[in-house]
Write a structure and sequence with these properties.
Mean pLDDT: 92
Number of strands: 0
Low-confidence stretches: none
Strand content: under 5%
Order of helices and strands: HHHHHHHHHH
Helix content: 55-70%
Number of helices: 10
Radius of gyration: 19 Å
Distance between the termini: 50 Å
Amino acid sequence: MTSAPMSGRKAQAARNDELILQAARAVFTADPGAPIAAVAERAGVGISALYRRYPSKEALLQKLCGDGLKLYIEVTERALADDGDPWEAFAGYLRGIVDADTNSLTIKLAGTFQPTEELYHDAARSAVVATEVHRRAVEAGVLRPDVTVSDIALLFEQIASIKLGGEERASELRHRFLALAMDGLRVPPAHRGLPGPPTTDEELSARWSPSA
């Protein structure tokens, strides 16, 4: 059964909401202290339209991080549902979280707003599923037993900090370094070829040039 199409006004509101959330992620992961007006400007919507949906910056941050937690849980539960090769299930979890890029929110926004009860609930759920996917990999003998859930969490944050070039290049480099890390996490250790071209001296040097 297909749902009925949204009216023009509702469809526009949904488009505006998506634009606002995309803009908020870009603005606040670049500068958590940015004003909410910067989000409206980037999204191309009026400030009144933004406030109708999110009455405060805190409400917008809560929504942004809530969506990130739900995505983290979704990716992890998908890995838990994979009854195939234990290492490939765990590797799929690692790649999925890197693609979701939820850790960019953690790096920049942790401690900048008051979490809601729903956020606390989802955070607890994310910890449960992360622990379970880790336990399964260790018990299957495919993940180093001395690697902890917290080690994996910090690995995700380290990879999320790679922001060279545009979004496509950053994703390419993140997966290159994830592959490198995975070779050391796996039992027995692997030595596979790394995906994507390596970082160039020009890319590293460009970080020191003032933004236009």
